[in-house]
Design goal:
The chain is mainly alpha-helical and 206 residues long. It has 10 helices and 2 strands; from the N terminus they run βαααααααααβα. The chain has a two-stranded antiparallel ribbon. Helix 1 packs antiparallel against helix 3.
Length: 206
């Protein structure tokens, strides 16, 4: 007989719908394509390894243009719109969370969070803003005949350096996800354990 035979099954709670998971996965794939193709364009060793620069440029451009599409399509989902409202609202508990994070205070009581913690809200807002800037500067670089040289030069500078920053931030995001298997399971299956929800997001009422 298994020693765990009498252990009650873990209670699961719904965290994300299928539509929300589709938005996240599709956006992640498009962002990954943008980052990888950008690296192939700017890192000489990768450029030599991959070759076919013109093809890489076209893939990068079209992936960048498609990047907002999953979010726009996701607006048809009521659950997705509700989560956007959660992500766009900062409360007193979010300030406490950020203050604790800056002090490296890892006590759970010092980091109250609703469905999304303050770090996730800041990350989402930053990525959304960076995506819009990258899209705008990319269009200026693409349609060179529509803007003066100074605009194109400035757009190239902003696009290149912001791309590097996005790569660093995404690496941090992936690192955080790798350190939290239950959060990854929630994004993969849509459900998380109630124990995890109560521990990591005590103000969330699923």
């Amino acid at each position: 007989m298994s020693l765990r035979a009498d252990t009650p099954p873990t209670t699961r709670v719904r965290r994300f719908t299928r539509a929300e998971r589709w938005v996240h996965r599709t956006t992640a794939v498009l962002m990954g394509v943008c980052v990888v193709t950008a690296a192939c364009l700017y890192v000489p060793q990768l450029a030599e390894l991959v070759g076919r620069r013109e093809l890489v440029v076209r893939v990068h451009e079209w992936a960048g243009l498609a990047l907002p599409v999953p979010v726009l399509a996701g607006l048809a989902s009521r659950a997705f719109r509700a989560d956007l409202r959660f992500l766009n609202r900062f409360g007193p508990h979010d300030r406490l969370w950020l203050r604790a994070a800056l002090r490296r205070d890892k006590r759970r009581a010092a980091r109250p969070a609703g469905k999304f913690n303050a770090g996730q809200k800041v990350y989402t807002a930053w990525v959304a803003g960076a995506t819009l800037v990258m899209l705008g500067t990319g269009l200026i670089m693409w349609f060179t005949h529509l803007t003066p040289l100074m605009w194109r030069t400035s757009a190239t500078f902003v696009h290149d350096w912001l791309a590097l920053t996005i790569g660093i931030v995404l690496a941090g995001h992936i690192g955080m996800a790798l350190g939290d298997p239950e959060a990854r399971r929630g994004m993969r299956t849509g459900a998380v354990s109630r124990e995890w929800a109560e521990r990591e997001h005590p103000l969330w009422r699923p």
